[in-house]
Give the backbone structure.
Amino acid sequence: MSRGVLSCLAVASLALAGCASNQEKPDVALQELVQMFPGHYDNTVQAQADLARGVQPPHEALALDIVPIEAIMIGENVFYVQESIAGDPKRVLAQKIVMFGVVKKEIVQTDYSLAEPHRWRNGQLNPDLFKGIMTQDVRSTKGCSLRWKRDEGKFVGSNDPKTCHGRTGAAGAFSQIQARAELGPLEYSTAEQAFDKPGHLSQGRLDEPFYRFHKQSHDNE
C-alpha cells in the first residue's frame, strides 16, 4: 500500500474520531430535556387564534400541569401530567405518569395510565403523594413509546405507529396511533392521530394536529 493511501486513511480516521467525539451523549441531552419539561402550560393563544380565523372546530383551550415526582418503584426522571380545561382546573380531562430514560442510545418516553386516577388527582399540588406509588398503580402503554432527539434548538419526539394500537370511535375500531411531540424552553406541543385499517383518520385532526401549549410558569410556582 502506498504512503499516500496510508496518509489518506489516517486523515479519514482522525475525521471520524472527531465526529464521534463531537456527537452529543444521550445522557446529557436527557438531562436538558427533563429540566425543560415541567411547568404549567396552556394553549389559549392557539384556541383564540382559531376562533378569530373561524377555524371549525377550534382547538379546545386546555391546560397542562407537569411536575417531577419521586417514584422509586417506577424509575428515575418521572413526572405527573394532568390535563384540564383552561381556566377551570376542576374539570380534569386526563392524568398520566411519564418516564424518560436512555435505551440503546436513544431518549425514550414511556407513558403510564393510572389504575385509580381519582386517588392522584391534583397531584401537582402535592408531589410527595407519589412517593408511595407502586407498580400495580400504573399500567404502561405497550408499543407506544416516543423516541426523542434534538432538532434545531428543540426536542422532537415520535412513536412507531406500527407498534402502537388502540380502539377509537363510537364502534371501538382497531386503529394505529401516531403520536408526536415537540419541546422547547417555552412551548410544548403534542399531536395524536388514529388511523383505521384502510388508513382513514378515525381520531385527531388533519388541519393542525398539534395542540401548542405555552409555558406560563415553571413547576407551578
